[in-house]
Amino acid sequence: MPVADRGVRAGAEFGRILAGVFRKAGWRVPRASSSSDSGADLILDRSGKRYVVQLKVSSEGRRDRLIPLLSQAILEAQASAQRSGDNAVPVAVVAARRIPASVAEQVKQFAERYAPNVGIGAIDAEGLRLFSGPGLEGLDAKPPRRLARHIVSPKRIPDLFSDLNQWMLKILVGQGLPESLICVPREPIRNASQLAGAAKVSIMSASRLVNQLTSRGFLDESEQHLRVVRAGELLEWWTSSNREASKEVPARWILKSGQHQLLSALRQYASRQMHNQPRCCLGLFAAADALGIGFVRGAPAHLYLERLTLDSSDGLGLAIDHSDRPADVILRIPVNREAVFRAFVMHDGVPVSDVLQVWLDVSTHPARGREQADAIRRRVLKPLFGKQL
Q1: Are 57 and 86 in contact (CB under 8 A)?
Q2: Which of 144, 200, 223, 267 is surrounded by the most beta carbons within 10 Å?
Q3: Is the dihedral of CA 124, 173, 185, 335 positive or negative?
Q4: pLDDT tens-digit map of 139-149
Q5: CB of 80 within 8 A of CB of 90?
Q6: Are 198 and 171 within 8 A, CB to CB?
């Protein structure tokens, strides 16, 4: 269907929704054709008072889209009211498929500041109704449970936690975390285009993720930035998707050389920077210790290795060992390699998994992983998300 046709249909649908809001409240709503002389979308009567309404529909419920449309609706509503006469009250309404409550409130504040004599409204397809102005009291309503119908099993949305999507999620969440715990671009992310630029992915990939998160109620599109909401549910889904994200390979030191051999080997490996050298970083409990948030002692040491080659294992001083002997180091070959290696941090020359990756990995680990995950949740994630966790 052409874009213009979709716009016409959306306008007609929201026109019916808006008329229904007023009818339900006991207002008299004549047929739309009766408003053609004044140029208004709707003409309403209440207790002998006439209201002329201009409705503008946006494809997105963002502030930077709604405020310009509201300004246009205000001007047109004022002109329609003048043509209508009888001291008609101008009313400007904006609509979108989904308008975050915070954005609706910003729309209201804008109108109250710049057009205090004009009634205003913001409505969406999910039940949000916010009105302000003379005689418009009592029309407000909230969605019964926003987007509950869109919430489905994680198994039905495998794309949500693809490799690059996890990397972009780390950028969105990592803005509020210390640089010592995660390495992500530190810049305002207001839309999918800026997210694509920061993540160095295609705009299509970023748009797809933003649409998925928004449609499931995990993203609040405010005027300042894209903000993750309902973080507790999102992180639980993310954890579940991460259960089979790596292949583990046992390894032993070719020559043992002391207590700090793991850090020394990884520091030396990282300093080589050879062409096409597989990326590597500390993982799980060893990474938690390096980040200063370690809780578990005596757990096996893990290293993330982008791909297993003879040169990479030799470069680390390790030999693959599938015997029954306990491994010195467990090499993890990740499926989500970009999410793992783009976000790691450097501590004293040692590449270390970021705190979100550590939390995801230890959450399902049998060796006291839940205790370590709870410590990270309490010390790092709870201050970031507050009551959402």
Answers
A1: no
A2: 267
A3: negative
A4: 888 876 444 33
A5: yes
A6: yes
